[in-house]
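Reopening this one. Same input as before:
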Amino acid sequence: MSGDGEGTLVANGSGAHPPPGSAPSARQAISNNGTNGAHKPSMNGSSHLDGAARSHLAPPTYLGHDREEVTRLLIQALSGMGYQNIAKSLCEDSGYELENPTVAAFRSAIMGGAWSEAENLLSSAVFAGGQDSDEHGLVLSPGSDRTTMRLWIRQQKFLELLEKRETTPALTVLRNEITPLHCDTARVHFLSALLMCHSPEDLKEKADWDGAGGNSRQTLLSELSKCISPSVMLPDNRLADLLQQVKQSQIDICLYHTSAASPSLYSDHHCDRANFPSEVAVTLTDLDGEIWQIQFSHSGNRLAACGSKSEVVVWHVPDFGVATVLRHDEAEVGNLSWSPDDSLLVTCSRDNCARIWETETWTLVKHIDRVDDPVTGCVWAPDGQTFTLSTLDKHRSLRTFNRKGDIVHTWERKHRLQDLCGSRDGRWLVGIDDHRKIHVYNGITRELEYEMELHAMPTSVSISSDSKHLLVNKNDGEAQYINLATRKLVHKFLGHTGGECLIRATFGGANESFAVSGSEDGNVWVWHKETGAAVERLAGHQPRCNSVAWNPADPCMLASCGDDGKVKIWSNKTRGQELRSMYRQWRQQNSYNGWQNQDEA
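Same output, byte for byte:
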């Protein structure tokens, strides 16, 4: 049986996309690998009856799963992968169809821009579980808002008319069809402003919309499908989503997860403990004094450290040759932060200043003006165009600068902040003060969202890569894993010791599966992020381990630093041998003596 397609099906789009005009077009790229099928496989009467007869003779379940559900998922997945003939054959052989004719007509109307037909079908739709519920028609999920669905359809109609420069019909739609819905005044005002767009390109940019010829109709259909019962219209990419959930659940219970590659579906996932970074590969002694902070660049090819001396040392990775030493005029350097593209490095100093360094030539871009107290932290905006500094100056504790070091905003809140972190999506900006409080800001609006008071002094904060969770390290030897949206404690990480000094904790590892922290007793503690279980306790530094960092590009590379003036690079046995070999080669070529291996340390 040939798997060649008879035509590419029109995809629903990703279920995560909002209605047209409300999400950036960059997020509206829709793959065909999960379509319900715009061209529903046709079935002639005899083959359909034969298939239906066979389906009634077959057991109602497949290994405990509903046979019809499994079959429809397979039809959708096969169609999405381009195997149209096989999907059609499966429909005929099983007697199950992917969608009933009414749902298929609704899909065709949306994708074809037949807005009146789409609204007529929507008007005749019934709610699942109701007295008039009919699985052969368009069935809405309980709680769905038919008026909101109409708004989405009419908004698409309005935008497409504007794109074609048909301003008068577009204005008619806005006045006579959208405004009478009375469901989103702000949206109506926004759409009204779009009438002033001078070109289709201007319209698309301002509306965050990619046009009728792009993915906007698919995006609309995807949003509408969320309001339709999955019994008649499968969620987009449903089988792929289920498989991803299986993979993620196996990652979540893998205690020593070190493989960044996606797990295979052929077998259960498991990572060998021998691959975990639990032994010292290289010890670096290039920075004098106590080392307080260490951080890999986003690409993972550089490592920077700072501390009680007036220097910041940057190493190349993975040979750990010294790239540069940045001087800070005899001032202690407490923190540093790489820009998202690694082109700039901001260093935060105890001399009440911050400095911006260009990382190609390591020249000083700007010496940022003094405040009345030390600069404690730096968070870059996701686009890398601005960054926000935190300080212990309660009158200017938060200030935002552009890449040149020019101030663009002074935040109004007045508190002394000891540490600062931000989420990758720009949604959250979180700081900790010297009075046991966590201050959670909206990073986009710069408004305070809420505050949380702790029972012990926090020493550092970090946000997970998915922008959902906050890790708070405290001086009582407890780290808390908090859901930022619900403000609820998920679980605690225990075992390390705290004290009066600032000790940092962060997330890292393959798929960011771990939380890791320094400790007052010198150990490096690693916990499984999802279970809270302690995975490793590594004897790191004496007398104190102050900071840890996981290489974002290498799940088997962990760095730590402490009051002993050492930076330790942790890896597994095999990878450690490679790292030592590369550093020996660099040391020989540069006649360098500042290196020790684990046996020499």
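So the earlier flakiness isn't reproducible anymore. For the record, Residues 25-40+99-240 form one domain.
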